[in-house]
Write a structure and sequence with these properties.
The protein is built from 35 helices and 33 strands. The longest helix has 24 residues. The protein is α/β, with parallel strands linked by helices. The strands form ten sheets. A six-stranded mixed sheet has the order 10-8-9-6-5-13. Strands 4-3-14-16 form a four-stranded antiparallel sheet. It has a four-stranded antiparallel sheet with strand order 19-18-21-20. Bound molecules: zinc ion (2 copies).
Length: about 1000
């Protein structure tokens, strides 16, 4: 066999492996025999292992990162099934929210919400509902093709009425705990989508950008000013300025105050002919020398007035409030800037709170589309501009008016949030929104996080734990159309509101109960807008008509609700809705034993699952979570359409087969690390493992006796060793997989395959290929068959197709139909042999080093040499004569000599005697003939006759060893021809650069 030889004179040859097409054959075998169904059915009464599927959105194409996560999900579910658990796998679809709406808007060519309102909510939502399934078929195809076993026939769907009713019920639980509130806050807001976003959505969309950096001079004006008094006297013309740093010049027209820290000592600087107040040294500037000339306490700055940069006429609500004044605040950071902070309460949450504390005026000069409402005094051309577009205009204006101390339009590089769906820059914007007060649940969240086993472990206290430490209230309302309608009815008169938790409750409170449940035009129950909006209630306090608030729910609440809503909990389980949550939760699978997604979900699905379970006060929603690193391209860049470096999963699967891809994902690095996807690495991973196993399987079908095992077999030392090796592999893999250490488990199996191919089979050549001893051949064949059966079991969770292929080749008649209906292999103590493993490792070490010496010397492996010295005592390896023979054969030396005094580990005598040279030529010739036999498709028992002609010296050497040649080649006849004789269809080979022509007949 090719793979058995380290053949220096042939380039690396990979047998053409039609993995992909074989996999498709196996798929139809599974389908035809309902293997997935059977694997579940045979565990019906077993203990469940609970898995939750994070729902993908089917209006986007499946990407390579989905294959990554699904490979890990599938592996764990298959492993646990083999370990005896019932592992139900219900698929799910995420069908609501901005991702869907934006696709429809693109289709219809809409620019903003105004277009949707004109088009009509009903028609828009109909479009959204059908667009949800745009790539469903692709998803189903790739799910099946990659061997991800999940029940796609009964998925949960977040747009279904049952699902929505359960979501309402969850919101009602939050309301009953006073966790839902309507607030006015400065929240991240997408001006294109016209809606606030939650903190975890914002965290999905940060990008590094170059933004302006401006040091601005606010001139002190009030006549009573202490600084003015003290420093003005020195120089009558001198201006005194508060120095303020900002990266958002567009917010300056809405400035109403400057904040300082009262307990801080600020410094007064002479900069040219101006005086500046700043805690930190002002930045350098050409031709201006800056020196400190005094200090002033923050509290002495309070109450100073300054000349506003811009002004808008204040409306009535602003009259009598403080404006353009220095006030104190606690939140001021000193790491950047000057310690003096510009305050615009419309655009910062700290600013908004400070406004309430200090009774400041309020300026809102940006509309809900993110554009300037009016021009402030002094500027004529910002009205109607998108907020960021005003930056250069304001910059230039300040510069012109000598109000800019120093600045650069691209002076700072920082992370700025963009809308995670439409990529519009977000604006922090003062608005009303519905929130769940997660900040009240901080300690409960942290407590629940302690109970989760994170893989990798650092997620717990790191990325996820940190997120929980600074948890913010969850903005759940979206001023949008396609989503779970917020089940909140509000009174326009007195502000009273009710959160509705079921259709039953809705019917009992509606003033038009005949509209409950709401139905669409087709007469189907449909809880979406606009149908639900027709239902009204009477305010129990003032009697006015209450309407549903217009907002829909954050779609991340939908996906975080799947543990409950996928079962229409609690409605489908019991008619008694008054059961306590703790009691009622027992009727559904909760919590998950295992979930798995990529690291971007720490603030997405991982978080919302935990948040909702914490609201319900039922512990964490999952016990073990694998958090995968993101996939990047081979240069470490994010994959994106614009970069053109996206890898299409079906292309990869079509060329390499999905098992190669899965194996690559499992073993390339630890699950949590970044994955740089490279086809080259994928190929070398395939070569390192699946190709080796493929060759072993071929070896088995070519050379092994293929009957089922009988009793009373005698084992060679190699048989014993490989069985002991297998036991160790089984034990380690089981331990690793029980701890979700998937990479480690995979590497054990890879090692085993290497040992199997490169040592066991390589050194068992006499047994299998030469078949010197018929009984031993059969016995070792049983061993090889047993090994392959167990390897296919160990491989089954990783590479479901390849393992099936192996199983179908080696399974016994009373074995299960598919490898995926078997149990995980049990440990067999009788095969353990630690001593043998240790000794063999030593022998293999000697072999590796000796082969390296041969290679360095440029000495072909087939050239026999006289002796190998090893640094070992005979006593230590006593009784291991068989093992010494293995070493002799591997190194191709006539004898092994023990030399305890040797300096190096091994030493080879490279002297070539004529006898050795002759044998080398013969071995080389035998090898060429074997390659020809393979090319002709001959099996070992086939007999041949040979015709040889060519270089005279070579022929002479070969002619001298007729008996050895016949023995080596299983040849009946070897005929050496004269130069003038002809060979029909002979092949030319080269030995030591000399030519021979070999002809071969099967007889
Ligand atoms: Zn947006
Ligand atoms: Zn009322």
């Amino acid at each position: 066999m090719l793979f058995m030889e380290k053949d220096n004179d042939s380039t690396e040859k990979t047998p053409l492996l039609e993995f992909a097409s074989r996999e498709e054959g196996i798929l139809s075998f599974w389908r035809k025999n309902s293997i997935f169904q059977k694997s579940l059915n045979q565990r019906r009464d077993a203990q469940p292992f609970i898995f939750y599927e994070g729902p993908p959105t089917a209006n986007g194409r499946p990407g390579i990162h989905h294959i990554l996560a699904r490979s890990f999900k599938d592996l764990v579910c298959r492993y646990k099934t083999m370990r005896g658990f019932l592992v139900e796998r219900k698929a799910g679809w995420d069908t609501h929210g901005l991702p869907v709406e934006i696709e429809v808007e693109k289709q219809l060519g809409f620019k903003n919400k105004g277009d949707i309102n004109k088009y009509g909510v009903e028609k828009f939502n109909e479009k959204a509902k059908s667009s949800v399934w745009r790539y469903k078929k692709e998803w189903e195809e790739i799910t099946e093709r990659m061997g991800f076993w999940i029940d796609m026939d009964h998925p949960y769907i977040t747009l279904s009425a049952d699902y929505i009713e359960s979501v309402w019920w969850l919101l009602k639980q939050a309301a009953q705990k006073n966790l839902i509130a309507k607030v006015r806050r400065v929240l991240p807001y997408c001006p294109r989508c016209g809606t606030p976003l939650s903190g975890h959505e914002v965290s999905l969309g940060y990008e590094k950008v170059q933004d302006p950096s401006l040091f601005i001079k606010f001139q002190i004006t009030n006549p009573q000013s202490k600084i003015l008094h003290q420093y003005k006297t020195q120089n009558k013309k001198c201006r005194i300025n508060l120095l303020v740093w900002t990266t958002t010049p567009w917010t300056l027209p809405a400035n109403v105050a400057i904040a300082v820290r009262s307990n801080l000592n600020y410094k007064i600087w002479q900069a040219g002919d101006e005086i500046l107040v700043s805690y930190n040294t002002p930045p350098e500037k050409d031709n201006v020398s800056v020196k400190m000339i005094g200090k002033i306490a923050g509290k002495d700055l309070e109450g100073e007035h300054y000349q506003p940069l811009y002004q808008y006429p204040l409306d009535d609500s602003g009259k009598g409030k403080k404006v353009y004044e220095v006030v104190s605040a606690k939140f001021i950071s000193l790491e950047e800037g000057t310690g003096l902070v510009h305050i615009a309460p419309a655009f910062g949450e700290d600013d908004r709170i400070l406004r309430e504390e200090k009774d400041l005026a309020f300026i809102q000069n940006i509309d809900t589309n993110g554009c300037f409402l009016n021009n402030p005094t002094g500027i004529t051309n910002v009205k109607g501009l998108f907020f960021k577009e005003a930056d250069p205009i304001i910059f230039a204006d300040l510069e012109k008016r000598n109000l800019l101390y120093q600045g650069d339009l691209k002076g700072t590089v920082h992370d700025y949030p963009f809308c995670w769906r439409c990529e519009t820059p977000l604006i922090y914007y003062s608005q009303e929104a519905w929130v769940i007060k997660m900040s009240k649940l901080r300690s409960a969240l942290l407590e629940n996080n302690k109970k989760i086993n994170w893989i990798p472990a650092h997620i717990k206290g790191g990325r996820f734990g940190q997120w929980l430490e600074d948890v913010k209230d969850w903005t759940i309302s979206r001023k949008r159309y396609w989503g779970t309608p917020l089940p909140i009815w509000e009174c326009p008169q007195c502000g009273h509101y009710e959160v509705i938790g079921s259709l039953q409750e809705l019917k009992s409170k509606a003033s038009n109960p005949s509209l409950v449940p709401p139905r669409n035009k087709k007469g189907e129950i449909d809880l979406h807008r606009p149908y639900v909006d027709n239902i009204k209630m009477k305010c129990p306090h003032c009697g006015a008509e209450m309407s549903r608030v217009e907002e829909v729910l954050d779609c991340w609440f939908d996906s975080g609700s799947m543990p409950y809503c996928q079962w229409h909990w609690p409605f489908a389980q019991s008619s008694d809705l008054n059961l306590s949550v703790k009691e009622s939760i027992k009727s559904i699978p909760f919590p998950a034993d295992f979930i798995c997604e990529a690291v971007d979900q720490t603030r997405g699905w991982f978080y919302t699952l935990l948040a909702i379970a914490t609201i319900l006060d039922i512990g964490p929603a999952y016990k073990n979570a694998i958090c995968l690193g993101l996939i990047l391209d081979d240069k470490g860049e994010k994959m994106s359409k614009s970069r053109g470096n996206i890898v299409l999963p079906m292309d990869i699967i079509g060329s390499f087969g999905v098992d190669s891809l899965r194996w690559y994902f499992y073993t390339m690095n630890a699950p949590g690390e970044e994955k740089r996807f490279s086809q080259k690495d994928l190929l070398s991973s395939q070569r390192r493992f699946l190709n080796i196993l493929w060759n072993v399987l071929n070896f088995y079908t070519t050379y092994a006796y293929q009957e089922e095992e009988n009793s009373d077999i005698s084992l060679t030392v190699l048989d014993k060793w490989i069985l002991a090796q297998l036991e160790e592999t089984k034990e380690k893999m089981t331990k690793h997989l029980d701890h979700y250490s998937i990479q480690e488990a995979g590497r054990e199996l890879e090692n085993f395959a290497d040992n199997l191919s490169r040592w066991y089979l390589r050194r068992s050549r006499k047994v299998f290929q030469k078949r010197e001893d018929e009984k031993q051949w059969k016995d070792s064949s049983f061993v090889l068959r047993k090994i392959l059966r167990e390897v296919s079991l160990l491989l089954a969770p990783f590479c479901p197709f390849f393992s099936e292929m192996v199983w179908q080749t080696v399974r016994n008649t009373n074995d299960t139909l598919s490898v995926h209906l078997t149990d995980w292999p049990v440990l067999e103590k009788k095969y353990r042999d630690k001593d043998l493993l240790v000794t063999m490792d030593r022998i293999k070490d000697f072999a590796t080093q000796a082969l390296r010496l041969r290679q360095e010397k440029g000495m072909k492996v087939r050239q026999p040499l006289s002796s190998l010295r090893i640094k070992a005592t005979e006593e230590k390896l006593k009784g291991k004569r068989v093992l010494m023979n293995l070493l002799k054969e591997e190194i191709n030396v006539k004898k092994v000599i023990f030399s305890p005094q040797l300096e190096k580990q091994v030493e080879i005598d490279f002297t070539l005697t004529p006898v050795l040279i002759r044998e080398g030529i013969r071995r080389e010739f035998v090898h060429k003939v074997q390659m020809l036999r393979q090319k002709e498709g001959l099996i070992p028992s086939d007999r041949i006759e040979l015709f040889v002609k060519g270089e005279a010296q070579l022929l002479k050497v070969l002619q001298k060893q007729p008996a050895e040649l016949r023995e080596d080649l299983r040849a009946e006849k070897i005929k050496f021809l004269l130069p003038e004789e002809q060979i029909l269809s002979g092949r030319t080979v080269k030995i030591n650069d000399k030519q021979l022509i070999i002809g071969m007949n099967k007889i």
